[in-house]
Design a protein that fits this description.
By secondary structure, the chain is mainly α. The chain contains 11 helices and no strands. The chain folds into 2 domains: 51 residues, Orthogonal Bundle (Arc Repressor Mutant, subunit A), CATH 1.10.10; 143 residues, Tetracycline Repressor, domain 2, CATH 1.10.357.
Length: 200
């Protein structure tokens, strides 16, 4: 990556991080583009190089934050040397759940849209790829599960969508049960989804 490209990435990330801070403290409705660019220390025109409006940056933030969660989990998975596909998936999910349990601000921002963020990231469309390039660890993970799973991306979308919608209230409000009580049942359900997609 050249210097110009690196600077572009830094500006984009600065805008994303600033928008996240403002959206999670003031709310998206009370945050203007002027607020974002002022806090990020960039010109208003720079904002429009990357985003159409504040709803566009909010949507891209969802993908960005989901991407970071997934990639962090995969980095830790790589260090563990787990070979079993089912165990790999459970490890990644458990890591993401742990991260969101520790970061409730991020959980509230993502809300129950975790699956949407991941699916946009994993689509590999040119627009998404330009903004959130899929790392080798992610490709390797999808390739690995692709050896035994009929449709890895669809399966992961379903699993992550189920996970995101199930853990939200359990983490924030301990409803209907605590996250520790929920996880064994959640993983049993996820095991059934994996079985459904496993090549015969």
């Amino acid at each position: 990556m050249g210097k110009a490209e690196t600077n572009k990435q830094k500006k984009r990330e600065s805008l994303l991080n600033t928008a996240f801070d403002l959206f999670t403290t003031k709310g998206i409705n009370n945050t203007s583009i002027a607020d974002i660019v002022e806090a990020a220390g960039v010109a208003k025109g720079t904002f429009y190089l990357y985003f159409k409006d504040k709803y566009d940056i909010n949507s891209k933030l969802l993908v960005h934050k989901a991407t970071l969660l997934f990639e962090s989990a995969l980095e830790r998975l790589h260090k563990r040397g787990i070979s079993d596909i089912r165990e790999k998936i459970f490890f990644v999910l458990d890591d993401i759940i742990s991260a969101l349990t520790k970061d409730k601000v991020l959980l509230m921002f993502i809300s129950k849209n975790l699956g949407l963020g991941f699916s946009r990231y994993m689509m590999e469309s040119p627009a998404v790829m330009e903004e959130e390039p899929i790392k080798e660890a992610t490709r390797q993970f999808l390739d690995d599960i692709g050896n035994t799973i009929t449709d890895p991306k669809l399966m992961m979308y379903m699993i992550i969508e189920l996970t995101g919608s199930s853990i939200y209230s359990a983490i924030l409000y301990e409803q209907p049960v605590t996250i520790d009580e929920l996880k064994p049942h959640l993983f049993t359900a996820i095991g059934s989804i994996i079985d459904q997609f496993t090549k015969k």
